[in-house]
Amino acid sequence: MTIPLELVAPAGNADIGIAAIDHGADTVYIGAPKFSARAEAGNSFKEIERLITHAHQYYAKVYLALNTILTNEELPEALEIIKKAYDMGIDALIIQDVGLLEMNLPPVPLIASTQMHNDTIEKVQFLEAAGFKRVILARELSLEEIAAIRKNTKIELECFVHGALCVCYSGQCYMSQATRGRSSNRGICAQPCRHAYDLIDGDGNIIKRNKYLLSLKDLNNSKSIPELAAAGITSFKIEGRYKEVDYVKNVVASYRTAIDELIETNHNYKKASSGKCEFMFSPDAAKTFNRGYTEYFLYGRKEKIASIDTQKSIGQPIGTVTDVRDNYFRTDCNDLHNGDGLCFFNKHCILSGLRVNNVINGKVYPNKMKEIFVGTLLYRNFDIEFDKLLNKLSSERQIEIKMEFVQKDNSISLSVVDEDGNKAEKSLDVPFEPAKDTKKSLEQIKKQLLRTGKTIYEVTELKITPPESGFLVISVLNNLRRECLDELTKTRLGNHTLENSVFVPNNIPYPIKILDYHANVLNDKAKQFYERHAAEVTEPAFETITDIQGKVVMTTKYCIRHQLGACLKDNNSEIQLNAPLRIRDERNIYLIEFDCQKCQMSIIFEGEYSKE
Q1: What is the pLDDT of residue 326?
Q2: pLDDT value at residue 448
Q3: Same domain, 212 and 222
Q4: What is the pLDDT of residues 388-399, one digit of tens each?
Q5: How far is 294 from 310, CA to CA, in rounded Å?
Q6: Domain boundary among 495, 515, 539
Q7: What is the largest CA-CA distance in the chain?
Q8: What is the end-to-end Cα distance of the chain in Å, rounded?
Q9: Which residues is 581 bridged to in the sheet?
Q10: Claim: this prediction has a pTM higher than 0.90
Q11: Closest Cα partner for 172 from 220, 124, 217, 113?
């Protein structure tokens, strides 16, 4: 059995989703009009329907993200959104709130959002037994953990392979709600992980001042697609519903290339949708927004994964400064252009930036020379020439078709069959008229029938009968081709079928018996769901709690001690830090606890502090 490998891309809006499809995505996920985990990336039904129509031409899919937790009052509206989206033709629904499972959902396939904290075999087994079609795994899992889940389940497994990383386990972060009243589980995270903090030891000493201690680098597992597929992943997801179209074009094209390389060399896999992309640029994820890249925990805890000196994009490392003069510098990078944006860390490890105004004979004239010194490592976070390529037509995605043209005494006909076996045929009553130059006439027929450049089709085979063709007016040939391809598109869309998946409630036991606020139960239906599955909800969602002092607001596999070379499990640690450790921002202070047995860190809200 050949396994389809699916590339899933973000769609902040329909135009970005269409660009993702055109650059090779098999599926896009788009926010519902309300109740998506990226609240500012909601979309109208009209835009969602436009995206669906474009995607389905390629047998690509559209998943609707409605993955926030909901109040009792919001549940009926959420259900109406789901029903309307289903009627429009969405291919699956991504959810977090289990309260929806206690309602009369349409037969749409269900995907368990990563916000459901899908990190164990037992949890994934439960979701499979409960009726989900697919699980989006926790980002923190290693290849070995993924393979173990695959071995013990049959449900479809999806994982994130690229994009911004939440430092906390998804669905388990309450820091934004605690400090800003903006719930990450309600789609309005204030991103406290991207804020600056002081690190304080048990003696009150400031170990790190004004550093981005919780800000992680961005995920990039493009080189690990074969290993992930071997471990059981069939769906590779790119994060970024707040990202612009140039980001989506470049990153999707990068992963399309990587997945296609695997498919070409391993006959156990195949494409998940139709069409082949031709790129008018060389995809390179390093040229797109990134805070530096990490493989996270895919191969265990090895690298330093945080970017504590900046939370901003640094882009691609390009070289070092080799010479500095009054108004220009030289570098060992030889492909800089006027308008490029560069950045670097100064002697105080603070990110600074400049714009290239001119490059003459290896001399780089920037808009400012401050803080540049010999040996400075340069990054390019804006490549103007690359940006120009992405802002043009940067990809064409076409479906392979075979054509057969037949000319008879009183008619001509054109039949086509596409790579998926869909067929269409059109005929016109046209009397045979001998050509003065049969060779020239044959070439003219070929030329006009092959002119499919502005359609979604590419002709890979053309048969013309008889070879000694008669004379035909160009407009007649063009109309025949156009009508036949229009008919083929209608046939493709007509033959596209949505998967129906009726959710049937059951009472499979939930693997955790006592549930506190980490279960994110915000409505009565969600509580009812867990009770039906033999779990007791002892505490409602964090969003309802008034006294949050002493509460764990973040649980993460990332460890500040490990990042700073002070791991308690490593006898060769570079430095020692006296416990207990705390971090503080401009307003609040937090206690840090370390569970070295689980290799886990917890951040506990202690409240506001007075500045002295």
Answers
A1: 94
A2: 95
A3: no
A4: 999 999 999 999
A5: 15
A6: 495
A7: 99
A8: 68
A9: 592
A10: yes
A11: 113
For the stretch 412-415, contacts whose Cβ atoms lie closer than 8 Å and that sit 24 or more positions apart, written own/partner, are 412/472, 412/476, 412/480, 414/449, 414/480, 414/481, 414/484, 415/484
- Its sign, for the CA torsion 247, 249, 252, 256, is negative
Mean confidence (pLDDT) of the chain: 96
C-alpha pair distances (Å), 380 with each of 208, 292, 391, 453: 27, 12, 18, 35
Average pLDDT over residues 78-88: 97
Tally of residues, the chain: 612
Rg over alpha carbons for the chain, rounded to the nearest Å, is 28
Domain count, the chain: 4
Instruction: Based on the fold, state whether residues 263 and 409 are members of the same structural domain.
Output: no
Same domain, 57 and 141: yes
Residue 555 in tokens: 């649980």
Taking 90 as the threshold, does the pLDDT of residue 39 lie above it?
Answer: no
195 and 236 share a domain? no
Cβ atoms of 158 and 137 within 8 Å: the answer is yes
Continuous segment of H or E residues that includes residue 360: strand 351-360
Q: Which domain holds residue 229?
A: 3-165+218-273
The answer to whether 135 touches 232, Cβ cutoff 8 Å, is: no
Is 416 inside a domain boundary? yes
Q: Is residue 266 part of a domain?
A: yes
Evaluate if residue 574 carries a pLDDT over 90: no
pLDDT tops 70 at residue 486: yes
What the block records as the tokens of 461 is 């085979």
Q: Which two tokens stand for residue 32?
A: 């519902």
pLDDT band at 575 (very low <50, low <70, confident <90, very high): confident
Q: Please say if the pLDDT value at position 480 is more than 90.
A: yes
Residue 599 has pLDDT above 90, yes or no: yes
Q: Tokens for 404?
A: 């057969």
For residues 591 and 517, membership in a common domain is answered with yes
Q: Are residues 158 and 177 in the same domain?
A: no
Could you give the CA distance from residue 193 to residue 459 in angstroms, rounded to a whole number?
51
Distance between CA atoms of residues 375 and 6, nearest Å: 43
CATH of the domain at 29: 3.20.20.70
* 443 has pLDDT over 80: yes
Q: Is the pLDDT of residue 42 over 90?
A: no
In angstroms, the CA 242 to CA 30 distance is 11
Tell me the one-letter amino acid at 48. Answer: I
Could you tell me if 116 and 234 lie in one domain? yes
* Helix axes of 438-449 and 474-495: crossing angle, nearest 10 degrees: 40
Q: What value does the mean pLDDT take over residues 227-240?
A: 98
148 and 186, same domain (yes or no): no
Identify whether the C-beta of residue 160 lies closer than 8 Å to the C-beta of residue 181.
no
